[in-house]
Amino acid sequence: MRRSLIALLAVPLLIACAVAPAGAAVVPVPPLPIAAAAPELDVEVVVDDLDHPWDVAQAPDGTLLLDERPGGLTAVLPDGTVREVDADFADLFVLQEIGLMGLVLDPAFAENRRFYTCQGARDGDSADVDVVAWTVDDEWRTATRVADPLLDGIPVNEEKGSHSGCKLRFDPTGALLVGTGDVVEGTTPQDLDTLAGKVLRIDAATGEPAPDNPFADQSEAAAYVWTYGHRNVQGLAVRPGSGQIYSTEQGSYRDDEVTLLHPGGNGGWDPVGSGDYDESVPMTDPSLPDVMLPSWASGDPTIATSGSTFLAGAHWGDYEGLLLLGVLKGQGVLALRLDADGTLLEQFRLPELEGEYGRIRTVQQAGDGALYVTTDNGGGTDRLLRVTPRA
Fold this sequence. Notes:
Layout: H1 2-9, E1 15-16, E2 27-28, E3 41-50, E4 53-58, E5 64-68, E6 73-76, E7 82-85, E8 100-105, H2 109-112, E9 114-123, E10 126-136, E11 143-154, E12 167-170, E13 176-179, E14 198-202, E15 225-228, E16 233-238, E17 245-249, E18 257-260, E19 296-297, E20 305-310, E21 323-327, E22 332-338, E23 344-349, E24 360-365, E25 371-375, E26 382-389
């Protein structure tokens, strides 16, 4: 009882939108009820002195690989050795929100040693966002570009670096998903002829559009698009055993959102409004075609949700099955329990991470069953954390 009360009192109750789009009447959702199986959590610092670590992945041998937004890869070996991985980032474009961002290992990493990053790239006087394929040697000392780029032409905001995405995850079919931002241009989310404000779906071997994408026959750019109408996709999470894919999106002042994605679906962001970029419009406009209503929305004020992951495994007790979201502005980790169809059932914040470590960028469950968390405070003060249920 005491622990559950702490969880309730540590954070003001969030008001969420269960099935209604942003801008409609919000529905209060109760926090997690008292549950004896809800675990106490242990938090361990794995690596410190980092600078904006953006993403983390675990290899089959237990090695953790993480990247930092200003550039750089770090491997944490199973024996705890922390090793800088030599890699060429000479063309990296870093500005405010943009730099080295999403990272994911190939599903066949044990055989091909291949991984992927999403990053700002400078080519002479122009810049864009590229997906790059790499291989890393067996000793985790050197990463080599093998498809440079695998996919390019994703627009970037060259003046401010704003709303540039970019999350990478594999879907259950083996296709690579690429979440992108709208680069603060009002027309891009609803325009199928640009890669901005989308979730793209590509063949990781070739960089070509996945052949069964919903707009494959419309135009060269549209062939890459899996969903559209997004503002700034920061998280992609595959729900174990279901094949469902949820996006986590940073919103305007009105709403951050979590949305169950459907092929060809429209995230509902259309910020043209009365001007070039009108942030007073709803994050999800239900009048738009093929709109996907959010499972959760923050309401005003927003909390700046970021990376996301589902918790799997009986060792998590009552937390098993939760969707966790890193929270930047709100500084913590938000947990959502979703019904089989994506309806929000309950929400709460993890008390062990509430305000203790500052801004949380990424949460990712790894193959060892632990939750890995990266902070996003800057200035060499950031950490990689390992979170586990207390035995």
